[in-house]
Every structure is written in structure tokens, then in C-alpha cells.
Amino acid sequence: MTKIFKQLGRHWAACLAVVALLIVQAYCDLSLPDYTSKIVDTGIQQGGIESPVPDTVRSTTLQALELLMSENDAALADEAYTDPDADGMRTLNPDADTAALENAFTTPDVVLYMAAAKNAATAAGATDTVVPTAYDLDAVATQLAAASQAPGAREMLQSQLTDGLAQLDETVADSLSSQAMLLVALEYDAQGIAHDVQMSYLLRTGGQMLALTLLMVAVAVAVGFIASRVSAAIGRDLRRDVFRTVVGYSNAEIEKFSTASLITRTTNDIQQVQFVCVILLRMVAYAPILGIGGIMHVASGNTGLEWIIFVAVAALLALIAVLMNVAMPKFKQMQVLVDRLNLVSREILTGIMPIRAFSREEFEEKRFDRANTDLMKTQLFTNRTMVAMMPFMTLIMNGTSLLIVWFGGKAMDLGNMQVGEMIAFITYTMQIVMSFLMLSMVAVMLPRAGVAADRIDEVIKTPSTIHDPDAPKALPADGTHGVVAFHDVSFRYPGSDEDALEHISFTARPGETTAIIGSTGCGKSTLLNLIPRFYDVTEGSVTIDGVDVRDMTQAQLHDELGYVPQKGVLFSGTITSNLKFGGDHITDADAEQAAEIAQATEFISAKPEGFDSPIAQGGSNVSGGQKQRLSIARAIAKHPQIYLFDDSFSALDYKTDVALRRALKAKTDNATVIIVAQRISTVLHANQILVLDEGRLVGKGTHAQLMESCPAYQEIARSQLSQKELNLQKEGE
Ligand SMILES: Nc1ncnc2c1ncn2[C@@H]1O[C@H](COP(=O)(O)OP(=O)(O)OP(=O)(O)O)[C@@H](O)[C@H]1O
């Protein structure tokens, strides 16, 4: 897991930018419920009126209100408004002390409203409260104005008011402020501006909500953009690192991991990490900000319903804990199953020809089906588990809403809460629950991506067993070049119980051909592979001009060698690009000459595009023999000092084999040639023949010498040459 964060750490600047943007996004997200609450409570229920102090008031109403205030408050109110205009309208000064005025106006507003309501009820002859009109307000204001003429009227009203207020219970006193707004609404109604005031409030608040939403959209797009870029860069870097490491691997490491697994690690595993990085960037920073912000908003509201959030979060965490326990082991298993599927499909696809030839399609299909079904079952299980989470999640969320509505309804009944407040509370609760949900989703994904990251890291951290020495030795500048010597070499494949080669010693000299012959599986290719260091010897040493191959750089070693593998491998491109594979120094003339020696010119010139003919991936559009000839030409074009042919003439017909070796002899006059061969005719004229048997050197000499002294060689010779040929050989001696 830390590996994923380490990857993100490399892009810290972008990550910080994402966090900053997410804070903005969370701020917007957390502000929106407040705006909804304002629109419902103030905009709709209170007609867009935010304060018990009207912005404009008619002199008659203000006069009536002032009568209900203490003398000080009345003076404050009077000063706060402009002088009456021609219509008797007074406007609130912008620099008035709003807090003090709100204090002064609240109770008189309520009293005046109640008086107007009473007036309305009396007029209608009703016993219940009747919603008063502007007419009722004016009537009450006129009555008050008349009453105020009497001496001591204000004092009398004040004392009545105080008595009345003392009888109000606490909850009513708490909601005085919203009651006071009713008077302001009535006053605006009388002025004929109530609709305009409400619309202006709704448009203003709605506009702010819209602006916040647009900002959120912009931020979300920016976050998505940066997160995708960062994760794509992480994916690219990881692929590059893995590829670089794998290219440096020796066969031992490749065999240890298996090609299929290396491919899964470079593709599927890196994709997992990439995906989780996007999620981390988009959710992990956002969820805590949203959760904490939501909790702070809810706590500041003092609604008494906070416990519902704790219940919801606890239920959610319990659910996630159960699911994680069930699904997590399967998540971990999935990668191994993907590996297996890749391995099976790779094997089947590369071996499709023999599979068809042996009519094994059904068997192989079943094998593939098994790997496929195993993966499907595991995926189905994890997906089902994750899907099962959804109804439970919805249940928890809806249950939470229900609890809030139930208890919120009671709070509203008691006047502790308004509708908008409750809506905001539900939204905040959902946000808090969502933030926990996001975190738990990440908690589910992280371990799986952690496994993928570990698998990638394992590749990157595995050093190649074959590497350049710290202080490489150069080949001696003078003396003969190209002397390959094996000094008591033994070799055992990693993980194997037996030595593939035992105590091999010989010297291959420049200008000479050294041939290695022996039965299948006796270790010929293994021996040859020790020279280019595809593997390192277990005991003894391999030297070139007296320098151990392990003491020189691999680049220098490979510069000396022209290696032709047992299985001709070509690369997609053209014939020329394949022939020039050995380096930029190879000219067209070199390539053509090499093709000539390798007896490839004939078939190349038969192609319409000649040397520019395309070669498909792996050389699948040329025959086995043509592939071999091109592989040989590729090695010759490099002009190496030492040629290594690993059974490279096997796919050539006898005539071509002879012509090729003759041309090669002329060209490689001074080079060291080591040939692994199955056919005795190929090695007949070699200066030195090594006979291998089960990894041991059982004969060394020329054909004639070995025919005399080596029973293993004689056996091979007898099995391949006719009696006549054997006699001819004898006579030739
Ligand atoms: N990568 C490997 N891991 C373990 N054992 C191996 C590996 N490659 C080859 N061997 C074993 O080493 C022995 C020698 O194999 P090698 O390929 O050198 O034989 P060879 O003489 O070249 O055979 P052929 O003529 O059929 O190509 C064999 O017994 C083989 O099973």
C-alpha cells in the first residue's frame, strides 16, 4: 500500500493541487444544503424576509411599533429611518445598527401582528386565529395612534406587554423572531412590495446556489483532469520501470516469474494501481473533508438529532467490516487467477498448430474453460458481495432519513426546527454517510491494488543474476583475438537437482571450427549459452582471450559474439532492418554480403520488394529455413570475432548447408566458430569436435581421431552415415 502512496508522492505538486481543489469542492458541497434551507425557510415560508426590521415602513406602522417599544428603543427606531416622503414612506438608513434594531423590533412586531390577527378574527366573527390583511394592520395602527394620545399610554402598554411576555412559554419565546417576520410581511403586503421582496430574495439565493454549483462542476472537471494525468503518468513510469528491469533479466529470472505473469504484471497489475490512484486522488482527500465538514455543520446546528448520524455510521461500518471479511481473500486470489488464464491462453495460442494436428482442441478448450471459469467464479463472488452491499447501503440511508424525519418532525412540532433546517440536516447526514462510504470503497480497493503494487515491485526489485561487474576488465589489445576457453565448467539450472554440465574443459581458437555434438538433451545448447552469459557457470569459468566473461561488460562481450539461436527469431520490420539488427555501423553492403554468405540472396531477390520485404512479428511470414538463413546472415553482418551457431543449420537442406559453411569458412577465416550440431555431416570437417553425453565431455578431437577412440561418436556416426561413407572417410585418411 505504501508503494502506491510512494508513487503518488512523486507527483506531489499535482496531488497538492488536487487536495486544494477538493477543499473548494467540499466547501461548495457543504454550503449547498444551507442555501436549500434558506430558500425553504426564509424564501418560501417567510416570504423572503430575513429580519424583523423592515427596510421600508409606512409612518403609521412605525408609529404603532414605536408605541410598543421602550422610549430608548423608540428613539433608536425613529433615528434609523429617513423622514417620511410624500407618501408617508420611511426607508431604513443603510448604516443603522441592525442588531440593536432587531432587538427593539422583535416583540413589538409580534404584538402588532397578533393585534392585527385579533382584529381580523373579530371582524370575521371567528374564535380561531385568522390571517390578518393590510387592512387589519392599518386599523390596529390607527387604534394605537388614537390610544397613544391618552397620558401614560406608553407606560400602560409597556406594562401590559411585559405581563403578556412573561406568560409566553419558552418555545414560543424562541420562535419570536420568525413570528416577527410575519408583521414585516404584512407591512410589505400593505406597501404592495411583498412579491418583489420574495422574488428578489429567491433570485439572489438561487443565483448564489447556481454559482456554487457551477464552481463545483469546474472544480470536479479540473480534479478529474489532474487525477487522470497523474495516474496515467504513474502507469507509464511503472510500465517503463518494469520493462527496463525485465529486459535486463537473465533467463533464470524470466523463468522464475514466467512470461505470462510478467505480462499480467505489466498490464493488468499496473492498470489496477493506476485505477486506484485515480480513486485515491478523487475520493480519499475529498471524503474526510466532506465528512468532517458535514459533522461540523450538523454539530453547529444544535438540533439534538446528531445521534442519528452516529447510528448510521456505526451500521455502515459494521456492514463494510462483514463484507470485507468475506470478499477480501477472494480479491487477493484474483490476480493469481488472471496470471493463470494468461498462461493457459498464451500456451494454447502459441501452440495452436500442434493442438490442431493432434486434435487436442477439445482438451485445450476444457483447460482454458477451467482457468476461465475459476476466474469468473471468483469475480462473480466478489461482484455479488459488492452488489449485495448496495441494498443494505440504501436501507441504512433510507432508515437514517426516516429517523431524521420522525424525530425532526417532533422537533418541528415543538418549534425547535424548521422544514428547511430538517432538509439541510438530511443532506448533511447523507454527505457524512457518503464520505464514510467512499472511504470504505477505497478500503476495499486498496488491498487489491496493494497486491498488484507488490507484484510490480517484486519485478522491479528483483535484480538480474547476471549483471556487469563493478570494475570491468577490457580484452587484451595484443595477441590472438577470439580464444574461447572453458575451464572445468559445471552448470546446474536454477531449481534443478542435477548438473546439466559437468567438468567441461576445452579451448576454441580463432581460424578454427569447434563443433559440439551429442544426443538430444545432452547439454549442447546449455554449453553454448554460457558463452554469451545467458546463464552464469556454477563452477569453473569461461574465458575469452584469458578474461573471464563475468569480468567484462555484457555490451563488450556481446560485441565479440555473433549468436545464432536454435530457433530463428526475427523481429517485425523489413529484411534489411533484421539484417542490420547488430548495430548502426552495419551498411547495406554488409547486409547484402551477409545474406549472400547465408545463402539467403536467392529467396530475398525472388521477393518483389527484395531486401525491403516486410517481416511479420516473430518472422511468421517466412519459412523455417529462410528464418534460419536470415538469423545466420544477421550474425554475419555484424562481423563478430566469435560465431556461435546453436544447431542453426538443421532446417537447411544438405546442399545449402554445405554451400553456406563453405562461404562462411572463406569469410570467417580468422574468426572462432563454435557450432552445435545434430548432423554429423555438419561437423565432419571441424578442427575440433566435442562429444557430449549427459552433460559430460566424452570425446574431443577431429572426426578421424574420434572415429578411432570415442565409442559415443562412433555410434552417432554409424547411425547417420552409410557404410560406404564411413569407408570413404577411412580411405580419405
Ligand atoms: N531452463 C531450463 N531449466 C532446467 N533444465 C533445463 C533448462 N533447459 C534445459 N534443461 C535441461 O538441461 C539439459 C540439457 O539441455 P540442452 O537444451 O542444453 O540440450 P541440447 O543438447 O541442446 O538438446 P537438443 O539437441 O535437443 O537441443 C536437458 O536435460 C534439459 O532438460
UniProtKB/TrEMBL annotation:
Residues 193-448 form the ABC transmembrane type-1 domain. It is a multi-pass membrane protein. The keyword Oxidoreductase does not apply. The chain crosses the membrane at residues 209-230, 275-295, 307-327, 386-407, 422-446. The lineage of its organism: Bacteria, Bacillati, Bacillota, Clostridia, Eubacteriales. SUPFAM superfamilies: ABC transporter transmembrane region (SSF90123), P-loop containing nucleoside triphosphate hydrolases (SSF52540). SMART domains: AAA (SM00382). One of its GO terms (cellular component) is plasma membrane. This is ATP-binding cassette, subfamily B. Residues 484-719 form the ABC transporter domain. One of its GO terms (molecular function) is ATP binding. It is found in: Cell membrane. PROSITE patterns: ABC_TM1F, ABC_TRANSPORTER_1, ABC_TRANSPORTER_2. Keywords: ATP-binding, Cell membrane, Membrane, Nucleotide-binding, Transmembrane, Transmembrane helix, Transport. CDD domains: ABC_6TM_Tm287_like (cd18548). InterPro entries: AAA+_ATPase (IPR003593), ABC1_TM_dom (IPR011527), ABC1_TM_sf (IPR036640), ABC_transporter-like_ATP-bd (IPR003439), ABC_transporter-like_CS (IPR017871), P-loop_NTPase (IPR027417), Type_1_exporter (IPR039421). It comes from the Bacteria. Gene3D superfamilies: ABC transporter type 1, transmembrane domain (1.20.1560.10), P-loop containing nucleotide triphosphate hydrolases (3.40.50.300).
